[in-house]
Amino acid sequence: xxxxxLFQMEKPEHFTxxxxxxxxxxxxETLRTAELQTIGLDELGNPGWDPICFCSDEGKRYLTPxxxxxxxxxxxxxxxxxxxxxxxxxxxxxxxxxxxxxxxxRTFIAEFLCYLLENYxxxxxxxxxxxxxxxxxxxxxx
Length: 142
Known about the structure:
Blueprint: H1 2-6, H2 22-33, H3 41-44, H4 57-73, H5 81-89, H6 96-100, H7 103-119, H8 121-126, H9 130-140
């Protein structure tokens, strides 16, 4: 997978501001102890307890191959795409996740979103996230 190559980097020592509070520490521990190849919905699939909301941009870049894998693996059932789109959108154009990525990484994510739209439009419509996908694409295709 091209994402593994483009986002290849050392695992961060910490993913969150773990000294901030107990919640940040717990999310940091979840991400630190998980492996990139196997992290899944147990760790990332609850929108109400999502460690990525507290994750540094470095951590998000490191985890991007897992986000891509989870998105593809759950298109027919749990549908992780909505959470991934939430993180891709951040606070809009020029969000820190976007800004922290290289042009090649940004292009890859934009092309991945385009691929999803072209190949999974029925599932995207069924899950009512087409507008979010288009907003994320607008951000990442700059």
